[in-house]
């Protein structure tokens, strides 16, 4: 059997295996509300089989013992295969989670390959082995694979985030059990087929979609050495507590409530245009989006006029239409959550400048209008809690210190941006923001830089050479002074 034509099995131990249970997960089109696929839901026994396969592959198999160059060659083949399937990947992710197709072609389909290639470029220079000598001793410091990794990924950028975990884990020599989100398991089936075609040894990657209870069984499995999770902060806290009990290695990339700070010399029209993507990408379903915009009080009306024009120009519609910029939310539950926040914003006294309802003509799908609030006080729920939908709050400030205080007035610290006519001033202000990434005038940091969060936005970093750190254990070997190492 090959994927993704048939979703009736799991990919375990290098084979497509029959589920041991009978439960299923229904994949629903966010655009129509109708079922588009059914996949098996893993039972605890299926997870046990997947972990056992990964454990065998790590403890007894060749993957951790072959050279880095050999692992790179196989993942290079995966990169080539991803490049041949970009259209299929884009259409698949759009169908299962509603990402507008134009964005899917870049972020959801091309992005995973670019990210994988970045890790392949960085891997040879990572310090897998290093000699250190001092007056107190001589050591060989090794970075060895941490072991079996449980990779738990969300639904908003499912393949991209899967690769963000798989690439460094596999290059380090780890084996993996990949657990896709129940809403978006289809791209994981496609990925499993590509890994099989690339020639990865059996058991190195295993794919088992599962619901929450069975996912906890994976996270707490005694044969799993490390958990890599991306998702909500609430779920991250639960996973952290479970891993903490067992002293299990864990990295968490969690939620955000990121601020875009517009300084008094900023090009407001340019900033508004940048925030078209910076605040509303993937219909607002990206944790790093700038969902708070902090503007000078004297220029607030000017910004709101420019921003309202940008938001009003974003077509809402069928995610398969290349013109669409705002598609449906992933599920009815997510739409209900977002609408609850819009109601809370109104109830607490914020003013709706744009949007605030459901667009006409889309009764079947899970749509919410892109929405902008003004007159937002820092303590309002819409200014403090992650909404994960196309809703942005605008807050006014009187001086630069207040702008920094507003930007930092959050339990989150994932992302942020500064807009200014003086980039040097922007860098200086960025250094005062308590957040893992800050973009000056919308400049991306790229995949060679680490990403991750301060505070409740997570633990650890992904991407860049630092992305390997989460998948290795450090070992120091004391060496005689006169020993000559040959490799």
TrEMBL record:
Q: Specify the Aldehyde dehydrogenase domain's residue ranges.
A: 16-477
**Gene3D superfamilies this protein is in?**
Aldehyde Dehydrogenase, Chain A, domain 1, Aldehyde Dehydrogenase, Chain A, domain 2
Q: Name one Pfam family in it.
A: Aldedh
CDD domains reported for this sequence? ALDH_AldA-Rv0768 (cd07139)
Q: Which InterPro entries match?
A: Ald_DH/histidinol_DH (IPR016161), Ald_DH_C (IPR016163), Ald_DH_CS_GLU (IPR029510), Ald_DH_N (IPR016162), Aldehyde_DH_dom (IPR015590)
Which residue positions are annotated as catalytic?
A: 253
Q: Which PANTHER family match?
A: ALDEHYDE DEHYDROGENASE (PTHR42804), ALDEHYDE DEHYDROGENASE-RELATED (PTHR42804:SF1)
State the protein's name. Answer: Aldehyde dehydrogenase
Lineage, uppermost ranks: Bacteria, Bacillati, Actinomycetota, Actinomycetes, Pseudonocardiales
